[in-house]
Amino acid sequence: MSAKTIHPIVYLVLLWLVGAFLPADSHGDIYRHQGEDGTVYFTNVPNDSRYRLFLKEYQKAARTTPGKISGKGLPPLMPAYTGYLPEIDNHIAEAAKYYELDRKLVQAVIQVESNYNPLALSPKGARGLMQLMPGTAKDLQVGDPFNPRENINGGSRYLRYLLDLFNNDLNLALAAYNAGPERVNQYRGIPPYLETRNYVQKVMQKYQSLKGDISSSW
């Protein structure tokens, strides 16, 4: 099978098919890499150092017992990435420590942004766990926004920047994460957008809930 270009939407469908239908003992290794324009390439003959193993990892995750659903009204986690929750938690802890953030705050943002789906893709083009727009990801030096560690590092760095920008006012920082700092400056507060106001409320509620949960279970 030669390298093929796959649209991100088809990419998500492919991931589901891999986790749901391929036999657990299959040994067909598939590799992927993402181009600078966001195009994702797949091949079983990796002739470029940018390719990374894709299929085998997700088969392993697909055999993992799904975790419990967190958050009212959120869709259940697909089997293809429930197995990565402990790994994602490690990345969160690492980034939170480096950028001096509360780990539970990063968890809350990820919960609301993507429900821990590392391959989440919004209609506007936001990508990954912390839903980074392509331009923002580039500014944050995130090479692959679908890579959990890179995405969490970039999103946490951006959150730290916004907290510093708005004098550690968490509500304003979250509003800026959703609507952009220029809009927060324009309205000198949380912008009068229903989406942004609901977003700030959801993240704050999730954050408070996590802080009240000693175990911080998923």
Mean pLDDT comes to: 77
Largest sheet: 4 strands, antiparallel
Helix proportion: 40-55%
Strand content: 5-15%
Question: How many DSSP-defined strands?
Answer: 4
Name of the level-1 CATH class of the largest domain: Mainly Alpha
Count every helix, treating DSSP H or I runs of 4 or more residues as helices.
10
- How many angstroms separate the termini? 38 Å
Radius of gyration equals 18 Å
CATH topology of the largest domain: Lysozyme
Describe the 3D structure.
- The chain has 218 residues and is mainly alpha-helical.
- It folds into two domains: 4-62, no CATH class; 79-211, Orthogonal Bundle (Lysozyme), CATH 1.10.530.10.
- The protein contains ten helices and four strands.
- It has helices spanning 8-21, 55-62, 79-82, 85-98, 103-114, 134-139, 148-165, 170-179, 181-187, 194-211; strands at residues 4-6, 31-34, 40-43, 52-53.
- Helix 7 (148-165) crosses helix 8 (170-179).
- The longest helix has 18 residues, at 148-165.
